[in-house]
């Protein structure tokens, strides 16, 4: 996920709705593979229509790194967008990040069905809670 969120947004805004879906699917393919052993009930994000797992790790310098996956391609793309805002950052920086604000220009609630986006707040809450515990 080397592409900055602003670059992804610039491309996203240029695309038609069907191509936006394809972009999200492509972003989902860029997620770091999450080992099957980490996909447990403990890492499952509640409230998502698709299965979503998030597993936080701590880098040697203390920054947080998240492994995440879903069984739905478009959902994986949404996960990639969320992680783009927080990946490999210090816990205090994650706590201070307006994740919802960073994602707002993508207008996901309008672009996607509600059952595709209903778990986003839960995923963000889990990331924030992790950062709060680590910070």
From TrEMBL:
Signal peptide: none annotated. Pfam families: SufE. SUPFAM superfamilies: SufE/NifU. Gene3D superfamilies: 3.90.1010.10. Residues 16-129 form the Fe-S metabolism associated domain. It comes from the Bacteria. Belongs to the SufE family. This is SufE family protein. It comes from Sphingomonas natans.
